[in-house]
Amino acid sequence: MTGKTDAIVVGAGVVGIAVARALALKGHEVLLLESTREFGSGTSSRNSEVIHAGLYYPQGSLKASTCVAGRKLLYDFCAARGVPHRRLGKLIFAADASQIGALDKIAAAANAAGVDDMVRLSAQQARAMEPELQAYEALFSPSTGIIDSHAFMLAMLGEAEAHGATLVCGAEVQRVSRNGGLWQVHVTGEDEPVVAAPILINAAGLGAQKLAGMVEEMPVAHVPPLYLARGVYFTYSGKTPFSHLIYPVPEPGGLGTHLTLDMAGQARFGPDVEWIDEIDYRVNPDRLDAFATAARRIWPGLDPARLAPGYAGIRPKITGPHEAAGDFILSGPARHGCEGLVHLFGIESPGLTASLALADLVVRELS
Hints:
D-Amino Acid Oxidase, Chain A, domain 2; 5-stranded antiparallel sheet; 22 strands; 2 domains; FAD/NAD(P)-binding domain
């Protein structure tokens, strides 16, 4: 017999959990389905764990608006609930005069997005903050920080469950049918749909396009393509002389190989950008030399013997190589015509920072 609930969210990454929480706080009974054995094990746990200020995204884009709004929501959430985080600040540096134009563009985009605390630094000012950084000029973002992403997801999940949400892991969706105004979810190993609801949210991340293709009545024309951009991280053992996050100017497909610190002070370099055809999280140790070269642009005194393969993440992009970066897509009934159905496509960086703001938008889309 098919069970019924108020809302079904597919995908228990940071955005799916945030959406389930937002719906539960509005009084909905929510079923959160995750295909793997635990929540947050995909893109949400394979990133830099950075709280972005909203510096890079085009004016009027969903990335820009949800990053700026989400950053404030995220800091407030962490402070109120004791989620480990630190507002470290970030330096974005130009290595030479040819990159000054890139800094100008970042500063203009940040200002247009409502980021009002950026500081332009000369080489001497940057060196005063980070003596080991060889910068021609730099931008300083005091609002950028780091977070324990697992603790953040756990805190959101706890609130969601306290208000009527239920997480079910190991539930791989095979098909979604439509009957009597309800979305019926079929999972692997079951002949009949296991649950039905008037609201269905697709927050499946790397699997969002695949899931959308399984939904009965969903117009194929409204499902964007999926491109996979793998980013690899190498960790650094021992102390580093940096107290801020250090970023070069962005490169096509990503923000450039940068230095971030985790909550324990461990340094890591990455991610790079590699376009791949299928999901593969392996880290090739042979790439150490390339990483050492990129890392030395940040820290000339780096000891490459202390670099070691870390982990890889995959960006679920909706635009491919040599194309302009795509925006987040929140595709609801007004776009595709299917009542009670919302898809989230292309939720890459700054998805972690934007998660609470995206969840609020999903709730508004359904009201």
